[in-house]
Amino acid sequence: MQKYLLHIGGQQRPSADETYFETDNPFTGRPWAQIARGQAEDVEDAVQVAHRAMTTGSWATMSPSARGLILQRVADALEENAELLARTEVRDNGKLYSEMLGQCRYLAQWYRYYGGLADKIDGRVVPVDKPGYFTYTRREPIGVVGIVTPWNSPLLLLTWKLAPALAAGCSVVVKPSEYTSASTLEFVRILEQAGLPAGVVNVVTGFGPDVGGPLVDHPLVRKVGFTGSDATGRHIGAAAARGLKRVSLELGGKSPNIVFADADLDAAVNGAVSGIFAASGQTCIAGSRLLVQRSVHDEVVAKLVALASTARIGDPMSPDTQVGPITTRDQHKKVLEYIDIATAEGAQLALGGGVATGTGTDGWFVQPTVFTGVSNQSRLAQEEVFGPVLAVIPFDTEDEAIAIANDSKYGLGAGVWTTDLPRAFRMAEAIESGTVWVNTYRAVSFMLPFGGVKDSGIGRENGAEAIDEYLETKSVWINIGAPTGNPFVLR
Q: Are 344 and 379 in contact (CB under 8 A)?
């Protein structure tokens, strides 16, 4: 069984008490590696190392252009190692190799983009209203950043935080999910091989109470970036507030995917399948509520069931597989429980509804599942399942579609399928979400901001705006001839 150690200050080392925990392969349902179980002492070491890296080490005195060049080399290294990272991700989280390979290759673009922005961070000269002063602003790195990542797309969601943090000049301590830590430990070695100074990025693996809590609470950590459930996000936000730390929280979703009668229905059905069954529904932007205009409801459901029923379930490493396993044993149980809940609430099962068999393993599979006759007030429509379970909800008018879409505590993403261009603009304006896709779904880019509203989070990742999350603004006043004046009066 493979063994992974902590990564602190460029060194791989065991945890303080030299204990380990096992990580499972979702396809086989069996453990494949041992991960060092970090403790509060390890967090203390990692934060101190990160603090030194950005205050007294070479990272602290490095020019922004030099930082940018390192990020460009990181991009090259990630492209060269994409297959290794993708295989590790698949083994640890069960997502399709075909998707993970493309995703791991795409990671490089974030480091190229933010590498290019590193030396574009500047302040401004401000012509203040008081004569005799030269005043300007500086944009400076916020400090040590704590990053807590989820199990569904560990490296992608780490990169959304890490690339702008490094471009800003911060140093980082990462706490990956205990379910999917291996790829992050492989990843950080690649960063340093590409020239990132040791200690700038450190990884402490383990569990929330042992590692996550001490990391968020540490007084030298000035910013926390988290992706995960809204319940955990609230806990992290409250803890960070006690230390007056800045936070960015990318949390859950119950995204509406809205199909109007004038849409290209085949394209809309393809988008609905992508939105909920890709990655086995284990994405924060999953289009888990399919709102269909009543006049085409039955036609859309028939097309949807016909397409989804052809999905090939099995080994995520196989190029023919379209739906892989659920990542964790607990999540597998939760998804099946929600199927029972939907049935008890009176929803009508149109497809799936149970454990997927015939895979030849003891892995954690769930059939692609479609429920019709769903009330938007039901638990299935209001709570995040995080699995391949779709709730189909009919509507009649545009206003009703908007009301149903916004009747949720979440607001991360939404899809609109229509050939009516003015309607597309109206819907994009009216829907309460951080992203609206029109005639497409589940598209992301390093160039466009991403984040949620309401219970889906705080802050934005990606795009030029993301770098602001990791910078502080300092104002500088220089007296170039102003009289000293009365020392007891505000100047």
A: no
Q: Which residues pair with 257 in a beta bridge?
A: 290, 415
Among this protein's residues, is 250 annotated catalytic? yes
User: What are the DSSP calls for 173-194, one per residue?
Assistant: EEE--TTS-HHHHHHHHHHHHT
Q: Judge whether 2-251+452-475 and 256-438 match in fold.
A: no
Question: One of 89, 178, 250, 469 is an active-site residue; which one?
Answer: 250
Whole-number average pLDDT of the chain? 97
C-alpha to C-alpha distances, 481 to 130, 474, 490, nearest whole angstrom: 11, 22, 17
Whole-number Cα distances in Å, 19 to 5, 13, 14, 108: 10, 11, 8, 34
The pLDDT score that the predictor gives to residue 358 is: 87
Q: Which CATH architecture has domain 2-251+452-475?
A: 3-Layer(aba) Sandwich (3.40)
The one-character DSSP state at 281 is G
- Alpha carbon 1 to chain centroid distance? 29
Q: How far apart are CA 269 and CA 253, in angstroms?
A: 20
Contact assessment for residue 233 and residue 206, using Cβ atoms and an 8 Å cutoff:
no
* pLDDT at res. 264: 98
- CA-closest candidate to residue 141, choices 475, 476, 472, 474: 472
Give backbone dihedrals phi and psi of 381, rounded to 5 degrees, phi first: -85, -20
> How far is the C-alpha of 54 from the C-alpha of 50, rounded, in Å?
7
Which CATH number is 256-438 given? 3.40.309.10
C-alpha count within 13 angstroms, C-beta hemisphere, residue 340: 7
Local structure of residue 455 (DSSP, 8 states): G
Q: How far apart are CA 301 and CA 392, in angstroms?
A: 8
Written as six digits, the tokens of 315 are 């080994």
How many residues in the chain?
Answer: 491
Tell me the pLDDT tens digit for each residue of 311-354. Answer: 999 999 999 999 999 999 999 999 999 999 999 999 999 999 99
Return the half-sphere exposure (C-beta side, CA atoms, 13 A cut-off) of residue 389.
32
Beta bridge partners of 173: 146, 202
CB of 130 closer than 8 Å to CB of 482? yes
Element (H, E) at 12: strand 11-13
Q: Is residue 110 within 8 Å of 79, Cβ to Cβ?
A: no
Residue 329 structure tokens: 């044993």
- Measure CA of the first residue to CA of the last residue in the chain; give whole Å: 68
What ranges do the domains of the chain cover? Answer: 2-251+452-475, 256-438
CB 448 within 8 A of CB 148: no
**pLDDT at res. 360:** 85
Is the CB of residue 226 less than 8 Å from the CB of residue 250? yes
Question: Half-sphere exposure of residue 318, counting CA atoms within 13 Å on the CB side?
Answer: 12
